[in-house]
Fold this sequence. Notes:
The protein is α+β, with helices and mostly antiparallel strands and 136 residues long. Helices cover 48% and strands 18% of the residues. It starts with 7 loop residues before the first helix and ends in a 9-residue tail after the last strand.
Amino acid sequence: MTSHHAHPCDEHFRRGPTRRRRSERGSGTIHMLTACLLLSTALAVAVLWAAVSTARHKLGAAADLTALSAAFSLAATPCVAAERTAAANDVTLTACTPTTEDVTVQVSVPLSLPFLPTRTLSTSARAGPDSSQAPS
Length: 136
């Protein structure tokens, strides 16, 4: 008769592979919560970046349009035309500097982001007559 000696792995196989040690309980929950937190943070950063990017593009376009409208009114009242165009584009005209050849404008817009203080974005643009088409 052969005697069977218990092998250390026999206990593991009797308990089954799905049984975990006490110290590992809940680790799946922690990993899932960490993954959700990382995903939520990445999503929030992406949304904030998109909001800032959209506001910057809108502000740049509004500055260009404001400067062009002021340049078309350079002989008369360029800053009045710039003020109207800025208001029509939902931005604030913060500076208007006409010269005899061109006009430089600065516009701003408040940027409200959730959970962050309101910031003001501003940019400037310059426009004037096309010198390549000046009368000779």
